[in-house]
Amino acid sequence: MKTDEAIKTELQDKRESVTFGADRNKDFSKEPMCLSGRGVTRVFHTGKTTTVAVDHVDFDFHRGELISIVGESGSGKTTLSKMLLGLLEPTEGQIFFKDKPRDISTGQKKKEYWQGIQAIFQDPFSSYNIFHKIDSVLLDCINMRGGKNKSKEEKFAMMKEACSFVNLKFEELTNKYPFELSGGQMQRLMIARIFLLKPDILLADEPTSMIDACSRATILDMLLNLRNETGMTVIFITHDIGLAYYISDSIYIMEHGKFVEAGKAEDVILNPKAPYTKRLISDVPKIHEPWDLSTVG
Ligand SMILES: Nc1ncnc2c1ncn2[C@@H]1O[C@H](COP(=O)(O)OP(=O)(O)OP(=O)(O)O)[C@@H](O)[C@H]1O
Ligand SMILES: [Mg+2]
Asked: Which of 70, 77, 208, 209 has most ligand 1 atoms within 8 Å of its beta carbon, as the pocket-test mutant?
């Protein structure tokens, strides 16, 4: 049985070895605000039961920051993600996008908001229209980013660039449907889409859970490269506190719909205050086992 101190030292060593080319000491609080929330709450009523899935949470996500939201199953992570994405309305509280109250009251406004925020979900199948071939999936992204009038050659070059960013060969993908790809290829295609869409914010709800450890590390590596290259804000949702520590600038710990602790990754992990955070950290060897980040760096 490892002591908490031993676990922390091990985590710290790993974090230092896995830098992903990012500046670990950057102070993101000086960067412009990208997305923030005050008192954000979501209550569900089903029959006679009332569930407070997200309970008065406050958050400030800055430009270029990589934030992890960590909590166990049922803590409210996906409900919060859906509210951040504008797929679900808060029952109380307010979300701000680039310092202004977010307004997604009309279809047009929603569309505009979705130019700024995109998501990668657990199940890549749900992200694609299975009747659209892969070139049209990528072409849609170019068109959505105002590239409608670009020449065929330019569009082709952009699609090729996006594919090569994620180590996919565009020539092998043309004329295929998403369901003809492997799980790992599909995840890569998802990242290629993000590469083309260049949103301000990328929300990833445990995007790596479907694939094996080695592909996971590669996918994470690509996500982080994308962040470093484009300066997008990344919100990473996970139950793996060890992983959150390796990759994040800031961590929010979620328990029963509340943020019980939040701050810089170093502070939260090396000097945890909430008993729940301490418990998650002492569980790390169990949670962490399937991960192999030795292939990343
Ligand atoms: N549409 C809904 N109607 C009623 N209750 C819901 C609904 N969606 C979520 N809940 C409840 O809200 C709570 C939080 O669920 P949520 O899916 O946000 O958790 P999670 O942290 O994403 O869990 P996991 O790690 O398992 O994905 C749970 O108790 C869940 O049963
Ligand atoms: Mg969830």
From this structure: 77
